[in-house]
Design brief:
This protein is of the alpha/beta class. Helix content is 36%, strand content 15%.
């Protein structure tokens, strides 16, 4: 724990956490994949004072018939949102079960440049066999093998972000030199299923390392900046947070709130007529904004942040903005991100030193 501030993240993919959320959305289904819709939701979250938005993703459609299916890539949406926001962190979900870590690292480094240091990365897995067919890759069916791919993917991405030292770009017109080649490095990674030599094709991210979020049971804690804890009750969250071994810990919470039009329970019942709200093993709050505030106050004693998964964005996000975040702000439990600060700074995480520059400095010191 770093202090009194509780960092709030919100998942804004689709119309909400419920697969039938589109039925209660304030727009027609054909508006879901439009740039205006993505920018509108991101703006509401930023204006409310959220620390971070996340954008779920996967190679397969997010839902099944009769619900509308479709999704624009999370990195593409994140890049678009980065250009229309100024303070909020932006973390796309990018599995590396089948995706090439070299390309993923380049995309995320580019996102950090576009957002001026506000990028994060939520690491997940592709579990369904159809994902392997969609990628044209051999199936990785074993849980341990998927964890290996995630571990290796994060390792490679982090190494590639360091493969350019901070001052590798010199842009010298007088000498016609753009790069100092001595400050570019091969990472020489060899894993069980692939090898990567490097260096990267994108300069080092402004944050040095993009903020990496993930479940510590899927990615080693040493590779994470933020552990995402999924537990059903407060006691289990507290235990998991204490054992996470990461610089920061966020709890995952599903949220359905009372609105002026209907209670949370009524809204859930209405949607359950069409599809089930999948139980992901997370804390779930179905009730009033005041009760959610009380829950978040209790969670603040155990975790550094919470990622909220609203039932229906168009109904729950306005209530969060008008009632929940202001109530927490009055109690000085949440802090609005400041203009010009990186996501790392907002989370009070140090900007990591470049591993190659640090090694060279040590070598020089030893040579003296």
């Amino acid at each position: 724990m770093t202090g009194p501030a509780l960092h709030l993240a919100v998942e804004i993919d689709g119309d909400g956490a419920h697969p039938a959320a589109w039925r209660r959305a304030a727009h027609s289904p054909d508006q879901l994949l439009t740039p205006r819709r993505v920018a509108q939701v991101a703006a509401i979250a930023e204006n409310a004072g959220f620390t971070l938005i996340t954008l779920d993703d996967g190679v397969l459609p997010p839902a099944a018939s009769p619900d509308p299916v479709g999704r624009i890539g999370a990195v593409e949406r994140a890049a678009f949102v980065a250009a229309s926001t100024s303070t909020i962190g932006i973390a796309p979900v990018v599995p590396v079960t089948y995706a090439e870590p070299f390309h993923v690292s380049s995309q995320l480094a580019s996102l950090d440049h576009i957002s001026a240091g506000r990028a994060g990365w939520v690491v997940t897995e592709e579990e369904r066999p159809e994902a392997a067919r969609a990628w044209g890759r051999p199936l990785i069916a074993d849980a341990a093998a998927r964890a290996r791919e995630s571990r290796d993917g994060v390792h490679v991405a982090r190494a590639l972000w360091d493969s350019w030292e901070d001052d590798a770009v010199i842009r010298s017109v007088a000498t016609s030199r753009y790069l100092d080649r001595e400050r570019l490095h091969y990472i020489e990674f060899t894993g069980e299923t692939y090898a990567v030599k490097g260096p990267a094709i994108v300069p080092r991210p402004p944050q040095g390392q993009v903020v990496v979020l993930g479940r510590p049971d899927l990615v080693p804690a040493a590779q994470l900046d933020v552990a995402l804890v999924e537990e059903r009750d407060l006691a289990s969250v507290a235990t998991a947070a204490a054992a996470a071994g990461t610089p920061r810990v966020f709890a995952e919470v599903d949220v359905a709130l009372d609105t002026p039009q209907a209670t949370a329970a009524e809204r859930v019942t209405d949607l359950e007529r069409h599809a089930a709200w999948s139980d992901r093993g997370r804390l779930r709050h179905v009730g009033s904004p005041d009760q959610l505030v009380a829950l978040l106050i209790e969670l603040s004693r155990h975790v550094d942040g919470v990622r909220l998964h609203p039932l229906v964005l168009d109904e729950d996000l306005p209530v969060l903005s008008r009632l929940v975040l202001p109530a927490l702000s009055e109690r000085r439990l949440v802090a609005r991100p400041l203009p010009g600060t990186s996501l790392r700074s907002t989370l009070n995480l140090e900007r990591p030193a470049n591993r190659f520059a640090a090694a060279a400095a040590v070598a020089q010191e030893d040579a003296r």
